[in-house]
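Board notes (copied after class):
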Amino acid sequence: MEHESIISLVVVILAAFLTPILMNRLKLRALPVVVAEIIVGLIIGQSGFDLVNQSTWLETLSTLGFIFLMFLSGLEIDFSIFAGKNKRKNEKQPSQSPFIISLVIFLGILILSVGLSYAFVLAGFIDNVFLMTLIISTISLGVVVPTLKEAQMMKSTFGQTILMIAVIADLVTMILLAVFATIYGDEGGNMWLLLILFAVGVILYFVGKIFQKRSFIETMSKGTVQIGTRAVFTLIIVLVAVSESVGAENILGAFLAGTLVSLLSPNQELVHQLDSFGYGFLIPIFFVMVGVEMNLRTLLTDPQILILIPLLLIALLISKIVPVLYLRRWYDWRSVISAGTILTSTLSLVIAAAAIGERIGVIDAQMEGALILVAVISCIITPWFFKRFYVRYAETDKKNDVAFIGANQLTMPSVRNLDERYYRTHLYHTKLDKLDESLVQSEFDIQELDNYEPAQLEALGVFNVDILVVSTGDEEQNSQISLYAKELGVDRVIARIEQPALSNELKENDIEVFSVLLSTNALLKALIEAPSVMNILTNQDNALYQVSMQNPAFDGVSLRQFPFHGDLIIVRIFRGKDSIVPHGDTVLRMDDRLIVTGSGEYVDDLHELLE
């Protein structure tokens, strides 16, 4: 018996290991890896070759995988999006805040889900309206997040709105699932005990807040101690135990643990470690076992199930598309339909709801399998459709918008030299200032202004850009415009300032400063002391370039394994405010900025690969 147990475990582990390799070789990038793992489980399980037997090993690891999946689902929620600060400057902005829009849309989804659930009950497919409402209204954050990242939409208002709808749905449906299990479970009626769980969560949050910044904690987070990782696992186990003690589902405790860790804004390195452990070991076992335990042969021979599957898929689509039409007030039809489609994807919470429903006797094993199958199908169809149908802003508006305030001998050559494939430039100049006629060429589109008053610039949309360069002849004016732009949320502001005191003040406000005098002195000094370095900076054939890492396929890949070969050297990697000297074991992360040197041809290839 123990021998069979180990063999089944080995088969499942091998299946989990080989699945992403096969996906990579077959170039199945549109298919979420978790869905592929379920499909592989179907092949090796009851629906296919029946190579896996039930065992304590697999049951325990699968349960732990599910708990850890719910934890990472909570951790995936970025509560900073509720502040609504991240906006793409060249995108049309809704008149309402993304949070209000998202809340209205989710309420629409919930109300419509209740109505559709009653329809399924009246048709005789299911007896419980509450459970079916959960099934229809839930949205898979685990599918929405990577899809938006791949489409480079995470920082756009449109992308943030889609993400926020998914986040609200994730939070609300998880809480409703706990309420459902409490009401219909064996120990129904103790719903108020859930408040104990949330109270414990709040207490642990404040405890974490107190100890988070202590110096001794930072010291113990390295080496063999890894106190941060120990604290996270302790938090998960404690909240899971409390959750079960008050009669709720263990996954609610795990989800709450994830949201608490997210609220504490953990070190990104710790998040990557947790992701690696979860998605590298426990979670694949859970998803493979979902496929193993599903019996498609029985499902597909039941006429009622065959009718239910397409009807439920249509219900999922209607419940998302109709409320999302609210976005039509600000966005085009293609964007709105695409948003509704990607929000139709549902997986983890449906699996959870179906498993809980079957365990407490609300539905049978056949219905559980049908609900999971519908969730899997939705995760196969919706990301593919979203990528095919949606003309993302990164395609039609791929270039960075750069505004130059002040047309002069500094800014105009920069406009000419910026690569048109990556930058769209705008020049602004006052009518009172006379331009050197030798500088004004047909290639420059200069918009004349009455003055440089910040309010007028805002009214003209000058600040709706990704990068703002302020280089008028008045330093005080440059400072005033730069501070105003930063308050409006312009991502990067670059100002021409010669006075050291004024320069320091702007730097404190996250404004980049350049000085003609200091730049000239620095270049002359570098030319004398390091002429080879100056040759790299000034040689157009072998200059320094910045490439942004936006391809999730290479997130976590070390430079040693990076599949790019060419006449290029990665000189430096900037990650947030950190500057990293790269070596073979350096791992690439999303939003890294790579400083590279090499021939333009290979730099273009790298741009295409990573951006």
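Comment from the instructor: The chain has three domains: 6-82+96-389, 400-530, 539-610. Residues 85-90, 391-397, 437-442 have pLDDT under 50 and may be disordered.
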